[in-house]
């Protein structure tokens, strides 16, 4: 898996049948862009959406192609086989891989990987109770890069009626975080915030994702990207503290020490290094954009 996909904090959807939006999405600051052949495209428009994306990809640079995932239609739908064949052609010319909706079966993921080739990264979207039950198996499929949570479809499948804070989904989110950790994957990708104008809500939802152990969030509008990136990037104070922790532990030769009156030991050092790694990624993004 590429370092880009491993570290990405923002995954922005764009309808694949609107190729003029792809350049805007790639310029939005999003780490990854997901060209959508599934929910965003009506059934009659799906063949044209495949063709449009293949044609548009030819106009992109190598670096832009590496930031592109394609959300195919789910296994068992009438469009799945054609989608997978088109996906293989896109991956062959540099696309990163695919987001797999309604992921419930390791065998289906393996089928996609076999058809699209070893360079195709897989991001299974867990959107059902069956998908949650299979989370460990999905996470352990060799080409899976990260798990993602489709919390809106999950609520429908489970018959849930969540409050605005979605507290009812905390056990589900935690299950995906733990399944990712057990499989040695990068931290999972949390679901969308449907309100594209409420910046406080997108910030709150992203803060929750960060607290729960997610490393990224799905976005449905370019206006959401900057806020999500900002939340996942540590503050200047957090970076300064993390640097102080690392320096103090080095001076103590790995032993227990204190920083600002608080004990520092191995777990605190590990968290500090994670903070510095997130900061380094945010700086890389800033330099790419600048």
Automatic annotation (TrEMBL):
Organism: Comamonas terrae
InterPro entries reported for this sequence: Aldolase/citrate-lyase_domain (IPR005000), Citrate_lyase_beta/mcl1/mcl2 (IPR011206), Pyrv/PenolPyrv_kinase-like_dom (IPR015813), Pyrv_kinase-like_dom_sf (IPR040442)
Pfam families: HpcH_HpaI
A GO MF term: lyase activity
Presence of keyword Ribonucleoprotein: no
Keyword tags: Lyase, Magnesium, Metal-binding
Domain of life: Bacteria
Keyword flag Magnesium: yes
HpcH/HpaI aldolase/citrate lyase domain segment(s): 11-222
Name this polypeptide is given: HpcH/HpaI aldolase/citrate lyase family protein
Gene3D superfamilies linked: Phosphoenolpyruvate-binding domains
Cofactor(s) this protein cannot do without: Mg(2+)
Residue spans crossing the bilayer: none
């Amino acid at each position: 898996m590429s370092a880009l996909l491993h570290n990405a904090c923002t995954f922005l959807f764009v309808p694949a049948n609107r190729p003029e939006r792809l350049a805007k999405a790639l310029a939005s600051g999003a780490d990854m862009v997901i060209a959508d052949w599934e929910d965003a495209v009506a059934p009659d428009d799906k063949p044209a959406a495949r063709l449009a994306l293949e044609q548009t990809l030819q106009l992109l640079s190598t670096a832009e192609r590496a930031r592109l995932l394609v959300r195919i239609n789910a296994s068992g739908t009438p469009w799945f086989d054609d989608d997978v064949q088109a996906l293989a052609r896109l991956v062959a010319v540099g696309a990163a891989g695919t987001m797999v909706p309604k992921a419930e079966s390791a065998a289906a993921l393996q089928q996609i990987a076999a058809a699209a080739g070893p360079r195709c990264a897989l991001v299974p979207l867990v959107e059902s109770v069956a998908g949650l039950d299979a989370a460990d198996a999905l996470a352990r499929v060799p080409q899976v890069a990260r798990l993602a949570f489709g919390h809106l479809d999950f609520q429908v499948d489970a018959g849930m009626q969540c409050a605005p804070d979605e507290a009812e989904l905390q056990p589900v989110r935690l299950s995906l975080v733990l399944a990712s950790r057990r499989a040695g994957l990068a931290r999972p990708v949390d679901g969308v915030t449907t309100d594209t104008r409420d910046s406080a809500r997108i910030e709150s939802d992203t803060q929750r994702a960060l607290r729960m152990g997610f490393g990224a969030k799905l976005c449905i509008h370019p206006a959401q990207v900057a806020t999500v990136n900002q939340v996942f990037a540590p503050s200047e104070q957090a970076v300064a503290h993390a640097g102080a922790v690392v320096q103090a532990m080095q001076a103590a030769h790995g032993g227990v020490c204190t920083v600002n009156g608080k004990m520092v030991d191995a777990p605190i050092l590990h968290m500090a290094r994670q903070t510095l790694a997130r900061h380094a990624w945010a700086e890389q993004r800033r330099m790419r954009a600048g």
